[in-house]
Structures are given as C-alpha cells and as structure tokens.
Amino acid sequence: MRGVKRVVLVLIVLVVVLAILAFVLENQQGVALAFLGWSTPQMPVSVFVTLALIVGMLLGPLLGLLAKRSRRPDRLPKSR
Fold first, then answer.
1. Rounded to 5 degrees, what angle do the CA atoms 56, 22, 44 make?
2. Most buried one in 45, 60, 67, 71, CB count within 10 A?
3. Per-residue model confidence as pLDDT tens digits over 2-22
4. How far apart are CA 8 and CA 12, in angstroms?
C-alpha cells in the first residue's frame, strides 16, 4: 500500500510539473509591469505569474500562522 501511495504522489507531481511547463511555454510574450512609479524590464508573462505564485505560497502559511496566533486565548491560569 505504501508503494501505491508513492506512485500516486509521483504521478501527481509529474502532472503538476507538466502543467507548469505547458503554462511557461504558452506564455512567452514579453510584458513590462509598472506600479507606483516602479517598472520592471520586459519579461515573459509566465515569469511574473510564477513569481506571484511563489510569493503567495510563502506568505499564505505565514499569514495563517499569524492569524492563528492572534486568535489563541492566553493560557494563563485564572486566580480566584
């Protein structure tokens, strides 16, 4: 059973990698982004989308941890 799970995991990772590769190959047109006076050099669309994905994957769990930490009640014992 352990081997089957490993094969399924490898197949899922392979499908995701192939989808990312297809996305990168299909989005090669160059664009430049401008925001608040700051602009980037022209790069393929896929570069910007991939960078946004990576930043989101890093910030999402961090913000989740911060939200969880702020919701946690203090665990100090109550004095009577």
1. 65
2. 45
3. 889 999 999 999 998 899 888
4. 6
- Residue pair 63/75 in contact by the 8 Å Cβ criterion: no
Per-residue model confidence as pLDDT tens digits over 42-68: 998 888 888 888 999 999 999 988 888
**Tokens in use for 3?**
């081997």
Residue 26's Cβ-side half-sphere holds a number of Cα atoms within 13 Å equal to 7
The identity of residue 21, as a single letter, is: L
Helix, strand, coil % over all residues of the chain, rounded to 5: 65, 10, 25
Residue indicated by tokens 């352990």: 2
Q: Are 52 and 43 in contact (CB under 8 A)?
A: no
